[in-house]
Design the sequence.
């Protein structure tokens, strides 16, 4: 059962997670199962009395964090809307075949109970919502939760999200999951690999002009985009660009088109998901009169990344590599 303890500084919590036992623990180790583990999740110390065995995840990025740590055998299933695209050809297609797709809607208490879940891994607006399902509702039913760090609510308002740089959020969740499931070595190796890949792209971009980049998720009346606490912030910056909304202290949110026009981005990155295709989004941007004098639109500097690239997920380093190559090339998107 999950226990909340007084909050500790995030830096101290990160240090604690890095000083774990270090040995990889097999899933059938009964001693490991009964060992209580305490991590810091969204600024709160949380204790898990046992290692979870029937995890339900919500959405693609969260699900693939489990897959990246090879924790398919600890999962009861995943929830993922159908608009996240086909699972064929994805980096974890074999894991997707092994784990049950529980729902194409959203995670609910009923879904979790039917799956006999002992932990639900989701986040604010990644499954959890005050008007739908909250962690407290699951705790009341005896189900533990873990919150995606990208989604943590910050102190500025009750709704804005994000408490640390996005890649730090990715590494924090890998560290925490490594401790919770007793696979610290796997987590450390992944983090080391990811950091090396990102550093390589950063080195290639050193000294080059840094274009401003607008992340276009969706919306015609008002664009839905990302601030400094969502994954695109560092995907863009580490690739060699500057997020147009770097000063926005939130993760995913809506702004006005006038802001985009005034700031005049050099490049637009389209988030490919949903019922509107990337090509349809591109056509809208190119034909929308208020944007006609924006540099990225005039020069057709528009690049597409997948939804799973642009939320906190194991695909973030690859997204940085691909976007970095595009920004360095100076070539128009096809």
Sequence:
């Amino acid at each position: 059962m999950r226990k909340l303890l007084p909050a500790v500084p995030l830096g101290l919590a990160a240090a604690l997670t890095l000083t774990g036992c270090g040995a990889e623990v097999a899933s059938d180790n009964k001693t490991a199962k009964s060992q209580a583990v305490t991590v810091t999740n969204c600024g709160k110390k949380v204790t898990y009395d046992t290692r979870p065995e029937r995890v339900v995840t919500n959405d693609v990025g969260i699900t693939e964090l489990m897959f990246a740590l090879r924790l398919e055998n600890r999962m009861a299933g995943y929830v993922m809307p159908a608009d996240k695209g086909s699972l064929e050809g994805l980096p974890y297609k074999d894991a997707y075949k092994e784990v049950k797709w529980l729902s194409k809607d959203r995670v609910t208490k009923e879904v979790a109970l039917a799956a006999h879940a002992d932990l639900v891994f989701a986040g604010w607006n990644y499954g959890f919502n005050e008007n739908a399902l909250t962690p407290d509702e699951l705790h009341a039913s005896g189900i533990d939760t873990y919150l995606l760090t990208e989604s943590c609510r910050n102190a500025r308002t009750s709704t804005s999200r994000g408490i640390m740089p996005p890649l730090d959020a990715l590494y924090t969740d890998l560290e925490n999951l490594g401790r919770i499931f007793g696979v610290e070595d796997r987590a450390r190796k992944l983090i080391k690999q990811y950091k090396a890949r990102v550093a390589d792209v950063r080195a290639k971009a050193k000294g080059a002009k840094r274009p401003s980049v607008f992340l276009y998720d969706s919306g015609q009346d008002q664009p839905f985009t990302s601030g400094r606490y969502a994954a695109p912030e560092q995907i863009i910056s580490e690739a060699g660009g500057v997020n147009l909304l770097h000063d926005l202290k939130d993760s995913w949110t809506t702004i006005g088109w006038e802001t985009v026009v005034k700031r005049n981005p050099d490049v637009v990155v389209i988030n490919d998901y949903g019922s509107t295709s990337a090509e349809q989004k591109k056509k809208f941007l190119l034909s929308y009169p208020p944007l006609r004098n924006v540099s990225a639109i005039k020069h057709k500097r528009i690049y597409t990344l997948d939804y799973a690239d642009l939320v906190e997920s194991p695909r973030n380093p690859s997204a940085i590599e691909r976007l970095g190559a595009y920004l360095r090339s100076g070539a128009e998107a096809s």
About this structure: The chain has two domains: 2-194, 208-329.
